[in-house]
Amino acid sequence: xxxxxxxxHSATPALRSAGETxxxxxxxxxxxxxxxxxxxxxxxxxxxxxxxxxxxSGCGKTTLLRSFNRINERYGNVTTNGVIEVLGKNIYDDDxxxxxxxxxxxxxxxxxxxxxxxxxxxxxxxxxxxxxKGELKNSDLDNIVESALREVQxxxxxxxxxxxxxxxxxxxQQQKLCIARLLxxxxxxxxxxxxxxxxDAEGITRVEELIAExxxxxxxxxxxxxxxxxxxxxxxxxxxxxxxIVEHASTGDLFLNPQQEQTAMYIEGRYG
Length: 272
Fold this sequence. Notes:
Number of helices: 11
Strand content: 15-25%
Radius of gyration: 19 Å
Largest sheet: 6 strands, mixed
Oligomer: single chain
Low-confidence stretches: 1-5, 10-19
Structural class: alpha/beta
């Protein structure tokens, strides 16, 4: 299968057609040392839509999200059992390259984390790290930077200050920059861990609008504690509780006609 070969080696795999599975897990258990954080997680996540992970604090949402690009392993003493397939490849196969996996599966964190370098250098940082020296021309880099900033609606605001430090930007602009920083690597999946939690109301609206515009080109999986955001921004929702999947449905069905009592109690604000 070409997607599997590509994740294992050098090229970024193409998205499958809509309706098929982009991320698939079967019976995933995850442990931090002796503590079990995920229990028998089996889900299918489609490309071309936004899927939100919801549930009370500590239920395993972020742990599950970070398992999709194996970033949990950075914290040490992590054991994962079961199958996690991304773009048709089990990411725990021996031939999987973590750098290639993390190119294909980008991550946006809770608080914007631009590097303390220029706006321009932020955009090309990952690309330069993954490209042999001398293969990128300055003219190519200029075009890449402009394209990425245009895609996240930042070009007009930054075109005259590309050499300025990224930390001069507002929090909203910094978060958009962090999304733009992923794009030159041509990811197919973008993971978002509460991407709007540090923003004001106007910033939340604009970042949600950006995410909505990106949905057709990427598989987007987002952790959110904000039920209003889950309803506004998601096509499907997965409700988790104590490390287990309780319910996975279209956003409309989950909020209007939940099938599990735990789900109904949570979305009605009776706990969490």
